[in-house]
Amino acid sequence: MINYPAIDPVAIALGPVKIHWYGIMYLVGFVGAWWAGTYRSKKPEFAPWTPERMSDVLFYGAMGVIVGGRLGYILFYDLENVLNEPLRIIRIWEGGMSFHGGLLGVIAAMWLFGRKVRQPFFQVTDFIAPLVPIGLFAGRIGNFINGELWGKQSDVPWAMVFPSGGEVARHPSQLYQAALEGIALFVILWFFSRKPKPTMAVSGMFLLCYGVFRFVVEFVRVPDQHLGYLALEWVTMGQILSLPMILFGAFLLAWAYKGKTKTSVA
Hints:
Helices cover 59% and strands 5% of the residues. It is mainly alpha-helical. The protein has one domain (10-264). Strand 1 and strand 2 (17-20) form a beta hairpin. Helix 1 (21-41) runs antiparallel to helix 2 (51-84). The protein is globular and about 55 Å long.
């Protein structure tokens, strides 16, 4: 068993103003995605992407993540509590962001951005898909610092006792997700997209891999207490929301490689 480091979730306190690590992790994710996207946009093979266009898409993506992630959490996980206490909707520094909601928000934002620059939707999503895992990694580290979204009781050597998880040692499922959804997914997509791929292939690979990683980790992650297991004593909301991603991702990959789309660099 490893002792949980018990990091103060407040990174900086200036009188009544408190800056939380969770918020800083979001900033790290956005800056990291911007840097990686700018690096790629300077390469001629990724035209018509440019550093200027990358700055624009970052703004759209950030709005999609924040608005979609918060609304998704409310709709999928916390609707009853928010109806009873409406101000909960703005307290994002306490956690409570849904990846699946954020994904829908980013999809909507990228559709709007594509219309603005007159670029096909899937060419936009193919370029940004390899950048998303950077934010996912940072977000999961934020979950770990908050001591939230821990896993089931376990006796593995790296199990931890979380302050809000009782006195039992648990899987550090936030770190599993950081490793899979962040590091592994980034490596897969970054190298997969280095050479020209059919349009939709990179987007499909993102959906497929993320869906599989999330579905698997849900087996050792404790579901939200007010939701519990939704079926068969093991099916969680996270798995239900990830299954369509797996199916649609596989569909996009199959469609792309059947010659239905044009070849693109991203």
